[in-house]
Amino acid sequence: MQELSRKVIIEIPKVMGLDISITNEVILVWIAAAVTFLIFFIGSRRKNLVPKGFLSNFLEILIDMLDKQVIKENIGKEGKKWACFIMTTFFFILFANLLGMLPFPNHVKAPTSNINFTAAMAAIIFITTIYINISNNGVGGFIMKFIPKGIPAWITVLVFPIEVISWLAKPFSLAIRLFANMMAGHTLIFIMLGLVMAIPVFLKPLPLAGAVLMNCFELFVCFIQAFIFAMLSSIYIKDALEERH
């Protein structure tokens, strides 16, 4: 499948067995980061009380939505400190998702359709929650959060590993959810376009129409998956900020 191909742009010798060569996928991640920076740089140049222009107004709508429905709703008063982190995460993933909508199928795809990228993003959230937990509660307090208060000591032996496994599953599910949704959507579009080339002429409009509809739906998926990732990240940060219960 050409759409899912990986091309090495600059080959670099392995370091401790790790392949750190620069591929088309790495370039796409850099592009997503650059677009995120440029969009906000351009959109924030005019520091008006009332935003002017399509870009400034569009960004204000998204930022206001994130502030009210994600940060304040989930984290509360302490959310202001983490607003920039969560919003940057949302927009970076959004633009990474949207790269997959560009009509260059050979080596241009959504970086989020690569499990390595989504795992790295989930790991950032995971490490952040560990940092918050240890900063607020210390190492001992962090460990004690896996032991519910008031339970008998003998049950602790059973409950502790279950709580740890449940906690470790959070970043795993965060990575898999984003990867699976983005991979599935683009794969379906690719299959439909392949059918256009393979079936008789009188049937070609059916998969072609399906591909067009799927592209429109995929735009919605790009936004909703970025929103869900930001939402879950804020919930995990809130859990890390809470004291043991």
Report on the architecture of this protein:
The protein has 245 residues and is mainly alpha-helical. The protein has one domain. The protein is built from six helices and two strands; from the N terminus they run E-E-H-H-H-H-H-H. It has a two-stranded antiparallel ribbon with strand order 1-2. Helix 1 crosses helix 3, helix 4 packs antiparallel against helix 5 and helix 4 packs parallel to helix 6. The longest helix has 46 residues. It starts with 7 loop residues before the first strand and ends with a helix.
Low-confidence stretches: none
Question: In angstroms, what is the radius of gyration?
Answer: 22 Å
Biggest sheet: strand arrangement? 1-2
Which percent range describes the beta-strand content? under 5%
Q: What is the averaged pLDDT score?
A: 80
Helix/strand-derived category reads mainly alpha
- Please give the domain count: 1
Number of helices: 6
Cα shape: globular
Query: From N to C, what is the helix and strand string?
Result: EEHHHHHH
Count of distinct strands: 2
User: Biggest sheet: strands, sense, closure?
Assistant: 2 strands, antiparallel
